[in-house]
Design a protein that fits this description.
- The complex is a heterodimer.
- By secondary structure, chain A is α+β, with helices and mostly antiparallel strands.
- Chain A has 15 helices and 15 strands.
- In chain A, the strands form five sheets. Chain A has a five-stranded mixed beta sheet with strand order 7-8-9-14-15.
- The longest helix of chain A is centred in the last third of the chain and has 17 residues.
- By secondary structure, chain B is an alpha+beta fold.
- Chain B has one domain: Arc Repressor Mutant, subunit A.
- Chain B has three helices and two strands.
- In chain B, strands 1-2 form a two-stranded antiparallel sheet.
- The mean pLDDT of chain B is about 85.
- Classes of the chains: A alpha+beta, B alpha+beta.
- At the A-B interface, strand 2 and helix 12 of A face helix 3 and strand 1 of B.
- The complex binds protoporphyrin IX containing FE (HEM) (2 copies) and iron/sulfur cluster (2 copies).
């Protein structure tokens, strides 16, 4: 017999998707049975009370959680998110339900042994419920009591070689795609850069430094598997400067149906024979591809490196050899202001250890935002408020055509008085002598 | 800037603000308009480490106040 009746949550289990309700019920059964005789440090009933409080919230159409608190571990201003339930008598298991963000390894590579250790620790000192992974990228430990925090922190840092992630007005846990470890599209080593910057900016990661949160995300190519362009204040997207490499024999093999397009994906139904005109050339967003006889041609000056043609014909087309990354800034979800995608700041920069050029851009951006940003104002909002031109001045980056999305849609470049012959004060009448109205 | 003086200014300013116990980092910058934000940030974080100040976090935003002033974890009956 369940501790709380949860008819609305039970109904959610009937849908086609894997259900978190079923997952939590599984944990309830596991904590009750406790087959390994773990000395649970917080009550066994925590997962039952999670379902209970959520059912009540559905019933009331209101939340029963309170936000925020002083909880944390010593010396850290982030990584722990305090949460309390406003019905502690009804749901004692979740009266105190603090979340811990654990800095996921670059590329999210784990050994099963490490995962087991994490789970054992969390079963022992927490709710047993995790979120792998939060949208920040972190391993998220959901729900424990204040007294457990230092113990968990000690165990993580001393025995699991594992640090906490960021929260609050800190640098957030940097996160990256799997990159060169498994992906031939990777234009730089995302894991190396993610790891290097995580180490470089430890102080910003663990102690509040900014007007609000700040996120770095690293994508090895414009496919953007970690969606950096939509989610990071600063996105590092791999790209190349020279030409897409074409294997004309392989192009013929795709046309002849010998190689499956899209590396065999979308093959659940019969789309008919591969049509390079319709599926590749016709979908190129810049219209820079054409056939000359049976040869595929690309005008690389026009190509925006969107990845479409390479994704469809990976054996025929490959990323170029002169590789690096583009830096985009200002993406954010809608909290104070609407959602925003990143704007291109640095079209191309080499990604080579020790990444000094990249760090220089980062620090100039931070100096500006720390000085000018209002409380709870994200970088993207500051760029909108003071203008992209101001950002270029502060980062000492020359305006280039790549900064313009399309003519007339983002005209952020304005003349300044000193750049105009005669300034704002010239003699209009004299001008009118030569230029009639 | 003299760090000892800066600490005194911070404590005195916060004690002077009646009815408010949690502050944004920017409020600290405003106490020292001549200084680089980074310098002040480092002093504030040091004062938290030493136990003079403490953080309060909503999860997405961090506020800072004098340790023990205002609403505390104890108010949630966790002890
Ligand atoms: C209307 C209600 C809520 C709003 C508007 C809200 C908003 C947010 C936002 C904006 C974040 C991202 C924070 C950041 O990284 O800057 C966040 C994260 C989080 N919130 Fe809430 N939240 C709500 C309710 C809750 C509730 C009820 C709980 C739990 C009892 C909760 C627990 C968390 C946790 C654990 C995270 C971190 C998750 C992760 O790192 O992946 N939130 N919330
Ligand atoms: C109707 C119920 C729920 C639905 C439909 C739901 C759905 C989702 C979805 C779609 C995400 C985004 C996943 C991602 O992109 O990373 C998410 C994130 C999350 N969920 Fe739930 N969830 C539900 C209930 C809960 C409950 C009961 C908890 C905690 C006990 C919870 C904790 C979280 C947390 C911590 C995150 C990560 C927040 C973040 O992205 O920062 N969710 N949920
Ligand atoms: S973003 Fe690009 S490089 Fe990274 S995993 Fe995805 S396809 Fe590969
Ligand atoms: S990468 Fe995109 S823009 Fe470039 S040639 Fe291929 S389809 Fe066209």
């Amino acid at each position: 017999m369940a501790k709380h009746e949860t008819p609305m949550l039970d109904q959610l289990e009937s849908g086609p998707w894997p259900s978190f309700v079923s997952d939590i019920k599984q944990e309830i059964a596991h904590r009750k049975a406790n087959p390994n005789n773990v000395e649970l440090q917080i009550p066994a009933e925590v997962p039952e009370d999670i379902l209970g409080v959520l059912e009540l919230s559905f019933k009331h159409g209101r939340t029963h959680w309170k936000h925020g608190g002083i909880v944390g571990v010593f010396g850290y201003g982030g990584g722990v998110i305090g949460r309390y339930c406003d019905q502690p008598e009804m749901f004692p298991g979740v009266a105190h339900f603090h979340t811990i963000r654990v800095n996921q390894p670059a590329g999210k590579f784990y050994s099963t042994e490490f995962l087991r250790k994490l789970c054992d620790l969390w079963e022992f000192r927490g709710s047993g419920i995790t979120n792998m992974h939060g949208s920040t990228g972190d391993i998220v430990f959901l729900g424990t009591h204040t007294k457990q925090l230092e113990e968990i922190f000690f165990e993580l840092t001393h025995n699991l070689n594992q640090d906490l992630g960021g929260s609050g007005s800190n640098l957030r846990t940097p996160s990256d795609c799997i990159g060169q470890a498994r992906c031939e599209y990777a234009c730089y080593d995302t894991q190396a850069l993610c790891h290097a910057l995580t180490n470089e900016y430890q102080d910003e990661l663990h102690r509040p430094a900014f007007p609000y949160k700040f996120k770095f995300k690293f994508d090895g190519c414009p496919n953007c598997c970690v969606a950096s362009i939509a989610r990071a204040d600063m996105s590092f997207v791999g790209t190349w400067r020279d030409d897409i490499k074409i294997d004309q024999e392989a192009v013929k093999a795709y046309i002849g149906g010998e190689i499956a397009p899209n590396a065999g994906a979308h093959s659940g139904r019969d789309w008919g024979p591969f049509d390079i005109q319709k599926e590749v050339i016709g979908l190129c967003p810049t219209g820079c591809m054409w056939m000359e006889g049976d040869k595929l041609m690309i005008d690389n000056r026009e190509c925006t490196r969107c990845m479409h043609c390479i994704n469809v014909m990976p054996r025929a087309l490959r990323i170029g050899d002169d590789r690096g990354l583009s830096i985009l800034v200002g993406a954010k979800a809608p909290i104070l202001d609407g959602a925003q995608m990143g704007s291109l700041l640095v079209p191309f920069i080499k990604a080579e250890d020790p990444y000094d050029e990249i760090k220089e851009v980062i620090e100039k951006v931070w100096d500006w935002w720390m000085e000018e940003g209002k409380n709870r104002e994200r970088l993207g909002e500051l760029i909108k408020r003071q203008g992209f031109q101001r950002l270029l001045e502060m980062t000492e980056i020359e305006p280039t055509p790549q900064h313009v999305k399309e003519p007339r849609s983002n005209p952020y470049i304005f003349w300044k008085e000193e750049e105009v012959e005669g300034g704002w004060q010239r003699d209009v009448n004299k001008f009118r002598e030569d230029h009639k109205r | 800037m003299d760090e000892v003086e800066a600490r005194k200014t911070i404590v005195a300013t916060l004690e002077g603000k009646k009815g408010k116990s949690k502050f944004y980092l920017k409020d600290f910058y405003a106490m020292f308009p001549e200084e680089k934000p980074r310098t002040i940030k480092n002093i504030v974080n040091k004062m938290v480490g030493e136990g003079t100040l403490e953080y309060w976090s909503s999860g997405s935003t961090t506020l800072i106040g004098l340790k023990g002033v205002g609403k505390q974890a104890g108010a949630e009956h966790e002890d």
